[in-house]
Amino acid sequence: MSQSHDAAKTSSLLDNQRHGKGDSGIELDAPLSEDELQRRIEELMASDPPPPAHPMLPKLASGAPPQARIKNVQAFIEEFQYNYTGNVFFGITGVRGDQSLTRILNVARNVIKQALPIKCVEAVRLRTICCC
Fold first, then answer.
1. Residue 6: its pLDDT value, please?
2. The pLDDT value given to residue 75
C-alpha cells in the first residue's frame, strides 16, 4: 500500500471514531491522537484473529413439526456470515442442473468444515445437507 493511501485510511479512521468498544474489544476513547490510533492499528495487525466458529449440523427429530425443523435449519445457516468480499471460496459459480447430489453434499460438508462466509448458493447447499 502506498503511504498516501495509508495516510488517507488513517485519516478516515480518525473521522469515523466512535465511543464504546470496537469489534476487537479494545476500548476506544475519542478523540484519539494520530499516534495513538496508529499504535492501536499496529496492535490489531500484529494480533492473531480468533478462529472461526464451526457451526454444528442441527439435530432434527423426525417427529418434530415442520416449523420447528425449519427454524432449526435457519438458525444453523444464520451462524455463517455473509460473504461480502466478492471472493468465491467453494468453487461454486452458479447453480447447474447436472450436478449430482453427492457433489452438492460434498460442497455443503466443505462449507461446514471451513466455516467461511457464504453466499446464497452455499446456503442452499447447507439446506440440502440438513434435509438429507
1. 47
2. 92
Q: At what angle do helices 120-131 and 101-114 cross, to 10 degrees?
A: 110
Rounded Cα–Cα distance for residues 120 and 124 (Å): 6
State the Cα–Cα distance between residues 117 and 93, nearest whole angstrom: 15
**Which residues share a beta bridge with 14?**
none
34 and 106 Cβ atoms separated by less than 8 Å: no
Check if the beta carbon of residue 85 is closer than 8 Å to that of residue 79.
no
Q: Which residue, 23, 55, 71, is CA-closest to 122? A: 55
As a dihedral over the C-alpha atoms of residue 94, residue 97, residue 98, residue 101, rounded to 10 degrees, the angle is 90
Q: 0.85 exceeded by the pTM?
A: no
**Is 41 within 8 Å of 16 (Cβ atoms)?**
no
Contact status, residue 28 vs residue 18, Cβ threshold 8 Å: yes
> Which pLDDT tens digit goes with each residue over 97-114?
778 888 889 989 999 998
